[in-house]
Amino acid sequence: MNIRIGKQMQTRKVIGDLWQKAKRRKRVSVLVLVAIVGGILIGRSIYLRARPPEYKTAAVTKADLTQTIEVSGEVQAEETVDLHFQTLGKLAWIGVKEGDRVKKWQAVAGLDKRTLEKQLRQDLNDFEKELRDYGQAVSDNPQVSDRFKRILEQAHYDLTSAIIDVEIKNLAIELATLVSPIEGIVTRVDTPVAGVNLTASDTISIVNPDTMYFEAEVDETDVSSASTGDKAIISLDAYENRDIRSQVTWIDFTASTSEGGGTVFLVKLALPVIEGIAYRKGFNGDVSIIVEEKKDVLSLPFDAVDKDDEGPFVVVYKDGAFVRQTVATGLETDDEIEIVAGLKEGSEVVLPGSVEGKIDVQKLRRG
């Protein structure tokens, strides 16, 4: 019995010793784990403070810069006419059709003149009668008296009226023939057949293709940058893969109103003769008017340069810190900007919006 009790007590003691050792090992493991995690956190914090921030840069390079005005327009012609008869009547003949080429002062159509010619003969008869009456009045009144003066004046008035009637009828006959004042191509014939009565809106249109030009609307905010003689590149919708080199020939002195209600100035550009291109009035297209060019100048992407009340500036990373660097700029394009002073070729500048975290440019050290 005593031996059994002793063995039980010895077993409990062994178990208790093992438990205590296990507890001590657990506390050590926890402390080691805490130390490891703490070391990792401290190390990461030190690393984050020590490593440079992430950002994107752009380098100052030399480039050819071109400032342009980009606008749309259409092909027009200096010489274009819409011909109408001055008096209405029956169309006696039509001598052209659409697509025909006509010469200057060529007759293209005519009205039936028979009624007009009869009226002219009647008016000529009236004129001859009045002329005889005038001569008779002079011969019947050899004495100059007040009565004679009145008779003579009346005869003179009647004679003048007859002359005017003859001239009007003769002019009507002349106007019964439609004549083109320019050479060119017939682009419209409203009444292509003879024998029908014309309306006031019937038209024959003629365009001189040798006088075509490209007309564009330039906004009032841009027109001061353009000048006659400026080079330009025209791209017509009808010839998408052909660049037409041109130049500004005219800028209107008076403003026009665009379809959107804005204030614009009409600008004319020459259309050179190019093999394979047949200009037509009404062709739509775009034009780039070159207002300034600079060769081999320092430049940066346009978005790399910022501006505030102090002027243009860039941000550079120098000696472990972001620094504000004042620059002088020149020519600006849609994508690039000229750097006149403040940076040299190869300098790296920080692109706005690419830095980890937000930069307060007002608090940056000046470079």
From TrEMBL:
TM segment ranges: 28-47
One example GO MF annotation: transmembrane transporter activity
Pfam families reported in the protein's UniProt record: CzcB_C (PF25975)
Keywords, sorted A to Z: Coiled coil, Membrane, Transmembrane, Transmembrane helix
Domain of life: Bacteria
InterPro entries given in the database record: CzcB_C (IPR058649), RND_pump_MFP (IPR006143), UPF0194_transport (IPR050465)
Cell location: Cell envelope
Span of domain CzcB-like C-terminal circularly permuted SH3-like: 300-354
GO cellular component: cell envelope; membrane
Record carries keyword Transmembrane: yes
Keyword Transport: no
Family membership: Belongs to the membrane fusion protein (MFP) (TC 8.A.1) family.
Protein name: CzcB-like C-terminal circularly permuted SH3-like domain-containing protein
Organism: Candidatus Chisholmbacteria bacterium RIFCSPHIGHO2_01_FULL_52_32
Top-level taxonomy: Bacteria, Candidatus Chisholmiibacteriota
